[in-house]
């Protein structure tokens, strides 16, 4: 009985060793590829940024008049108003290497700032919407989240709350539109958002 067990164990060790070796080779190849691409990206000259999809937060069309005495809402409004004179671009899912290739290495710091402004904007919009939703200003909260979706936010809660609202109000067609947007995302959250929305459509 010992020999079959020993043979099986040896085969298991050989297979495991092969897999580990293959994984290490793949990791080494990926690392070489990364540094090769990074080196190439670093040589790309500055390119104009006038064709970027700049995002403007339409504060005049959002429910800025509601719950202004609420500390969280007031803080959200201050943050969003502070972003109105800054450039905002959604680069979610893009690596620095990809941005360097597309727009030039000299622009990377600028582009990172634009993307950081976007992250702040969409997280603040959702925080604001949550406060209004909790106070039963649901349709107003929806207007905020709909704007966030129009910028292709990847905040899962934004999509889920909108789907919940649409379903409860017999607007299943709008869930399909949410799904269409979700399927264009480059985010790691794309899969879970798409699957959840697909279930909502059923």
Query: Which bin fits the share of residues in helices?
Result: 55-70%
Structural class: mainly alpha
Proportion of residues in extended strands: under 5%
Please tell me what the overall shape is.
extended
Could you please describe the fold and organization of this structure?
This protein is an all-alpha fold and 202 residues long. It is built from 8 helices and no strands. The model has no long low-confidence stretch (mean pLDDT 87).
Tags for this model:
single chain; 202 residues; mainly alpha; 68% helix
What is shown here, in short?
The chain has 202 residues and is mostly helical. It is built from 8 helices and no strands.
Sequence-ordered SSE layout with sheet pairings:
Layout: H1 2-41, H2 71-83, H3 96-103, H4 108-134, H5 138-150, H6 156-168, H7 172-182, H8 190-201
């Amino acid at each position: 009985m010992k020999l079959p067990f020993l043979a099986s164990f040896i085969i298991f060790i050989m297979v495991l060793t092969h897999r580990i070796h293959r994984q290490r080779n793949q990791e080494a190849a990926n690392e070489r590829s990364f540094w090769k691409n990074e080196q190439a990206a670093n040589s790309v000259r500055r390119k104009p940024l006038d064709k970027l999809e700049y995002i403007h937060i339409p504060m005049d069309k959002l429910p800025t008049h509601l719950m202004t005495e609420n500390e969280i809402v007031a803080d959200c409004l201050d943050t969003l108003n502070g972003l109105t004179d800054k450039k905002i671009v959604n680069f979610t899912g893009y690596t620095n290497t990809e941005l360097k290739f597309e727009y030039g290495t000299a622009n990377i710091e600028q582009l990172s700032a634009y993307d950081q402004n976007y992250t702040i904007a969409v997280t603040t919009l959702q925080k604001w919407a949550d406060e209004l939703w909790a106070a039963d200003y649901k349709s107003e909260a929806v207007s905020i989240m709909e704007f966030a979706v129009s910028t292709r936010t990847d905040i899962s809660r934004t999509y889920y709350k909108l789907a919940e609202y649409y379903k409860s109000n017999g607007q299943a067609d709008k869930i399909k539109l949410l799904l269409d947007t979700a399927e264009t995302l480059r985010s790691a959250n794309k899969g879970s958002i798409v699957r959840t929305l697909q279930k909502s459509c059923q």
